[in-house]
Amino acid sequence: FVEAADALSVPSGFVYYLAEQSTRLMPDAQLALRGDPEFTYGFLPIGPAVNGSLPADVTPRLSDKFGLFVIPSALHDDALQHCILGHELGHFLERTDGLLDEVWKSAPSGIRNKAYKLLTTEGGLRRGGAGLEVQNEYLTQFASWMREVICDVTACHLLGPAFFYAGLEFTAFDAEPWKGSAWHPPPLLRHWINVGELNHLGWDRSVQ
């Protein structure tokens, strides 16, 4: 799907590739792709958002696996930068198939226990005198960072080094790449993890 008014802002070739990759992983997925004046890439779960605003007795409804992907209109002809959509596709998979929960459940119990003890009243936060509100804040940030890393790794599997170099270019003007936010890990940490994943996939010579 491409909105008619944005047809000239959307690279048609990438539409087909994105649709092919998403339907390979989720056969019943539906996508919409549109250009946006904001200088950012993004994903919105448009199906659940629209359905949630409708009265319960209204039918038909959109598929819960209907996602809207946004690209910066100013970069409509920058093929490398559009590889960041691989990360947004990871968000689509995570939102619809619970990828974060699957990864967390498959992690070794020792890692899960260590993280839990550090981030809850059973560990470091309690010894530091942190209250419940602070503990919840740390747990929320931990889950958000995990989600972002999982989406990066998904993009590495889908697009290889192209995603890695797109990420380097997109964050090239970040004045403090060693700093993260409540929702996103530091760019330097993300690049380091992506290099490790690409090396694991056999792309080591491409990211040296």
Please give a structural write-up.
The radius of gyration is 19 Å and the shape is globular. It has helices at residues 12-25, 46-52, 85-97, 99-106, 109-119, 124-127, 132-159, 161-170, 187-200, and strands spanning 30-36, 42-44, 66-72. The protein is mainly alpha-helical and 208 residues long. The chain contains nine helices and three strands, in the order αββαβααααααα. Helix 7 (132-159) packs across helix 8 and helix 8 (161-170) runs antiparallel to helix 9. Mean pLDDT is 81; it is low at 123-127.
Quote the beta fraction.
Answer: 5-15%
Q: How many individual β-strands?
A: 3
N-end to C-end Cα span: 38 Å
Order of helices and strands: HEEHEHHHHHHH
Q: How much helicity do the residues have?
A: 40-55%
Strands ordered across the widest β-sheet: 1-3-2
- Which blocks of ≥5 consecutive residues have pLDDT under 50? 123-127
Key structural traits:
208 residues; 3-stranded mixed sheet; 9 helices; 3 strands; globular
Summarize the structure.
Helices cover 52% and strands 8% of the residues. It has 208 residues and is mainly α. It is globular and about 45 Å long.
